[in-house]
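Q: What would this complex look like in 3D?
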Amino acid sequence: MTESRNSLWSLAVATLVKDIRLEWRSKDALNAMLFFSLLVVVIFSFSFDPNAEESRQIAGGLIWVAFLFSSIVALNQTWARELRNQVLDAYRVSPAPANSLFLAKAIGNFLFVLILEAVMTPLFIVFYNLRALGPAWQLIPVGILGTWALVVNGTFFAALSLRTRSREIMLPLLLFPISIPAIQGMVEATRIILSADGSARFWIVLLLTYDVVFTTACLGLFGTILQAE
Amino acid sequence: MKRAFTIFSLVTAILLVYGLYQALVAAPTERTMGDVQRIFYYHVPSAWTAFCLFFTNLIASIVYLATKKIKADALAVASAEVGVVFCTIVLVTGPIWARPVWGIWWTWDVRLTTTLVLWLIYVAYLVLRRFSDTAQTPILAAVLSIFGALDVPLVYFSIWFFRTQHPQPVMGKGGSLDPRMLHAFLINLLAFTCFGIMVCWARYRLEMLHREVEEAHAMESLGTSSSNEASLPLSRSSR
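A: Here is my prediction, written as structure tokens for the whole assembly.
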């Protein structure tokens, strides 16, 4: 038992380190994501041009929609890299547990999207003159839970749509409907915290539930997806 | 099998005609809403049928993942497609009723939103099936169906919490229901359930036939079944 758990984590860490190294050398996904979300922010601010109070009301929606759209860029690249040189096939026939691969990919995407958020959030604050009226520290759990909610299902559906035609379009088509409650949770929690309009506790609990439910589902079904023949 | 289907279709047709008469003629006109209330005899049975079909899809998907039986997958395809059609009827008839009664076409009420999200998930399911024609498609689709089923309760709770903080149009019918209305409603509920089962059954048989044809074509191209060539249809259905 301990043996298998060790191998699960050590394999996950090995794959994760490999992915981070690859990303560090090319910076393809990160650069594309950053520039894409910058464009979304600029286009949104031209389209709405809000005052300070309106900003607080709509910023939660804008910021999360921007992150959602740009995380698609990273998610689409997750598995494409492994298709070249039949890496995924090699993984499939190896005795390594499927979940270690999934965890590595999900954590990798999680880190990339967190970096994106860390860079873009200050820009958002500047562009929209944001100042939180509620407890701002609560934005941290909302950000972490919300990002994991997007990324865990995103990584899973990216793997699911690997074998479909035009898979880059398939991913958002599958991911967005399933993510609706998570997005609502993030947006509402952010809006409540920014405008000090009641307590965000329900939404944080909702996000936590969403994360627990779908992480379990992903880990339970990823083997089926990977081995599907 | 074929005879059972014919008899079942006949019964369904009679029930639908009787239900139409009950809904449009026999049931009394509602006092405040007027004739537009009669859409209720189609709207609610369609919703019920759609939810039953989506539930069938979930069960068939789980059975398929457990047993890998083609029949379960064919049932999953059939129920998802027919379910989307009924769900579309619900989403179209709802606003037609809501506009004169509530004064608005749409509101982000918990039932409306959950139905819409369910519809979106199953459209995504059908798109996935259409975009992927490899042998793994049934497994991928079954997995998506399970994800959808996990998602719906979360949608329900989030909207429920979101909207209970705001005033919303009253859904419930004040006062008691006229027995003739109840009668018309129950007849239509039965008729639509039978109709849903009938269409789903036909689609299921079509799907099984389609797979037989594909299999026969595959065998033919392998050169193993030259004997029953004449029984094959000349053209494949265009997909």
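A: To summarize the key features: Chain A has a mean pLDDT of 86. Helices of chain A lie at 2-26, 28-48, 52-83, 87-93, 98-128, 139-160, 167-195, 201-227.
Q: Very helpful, thank you.
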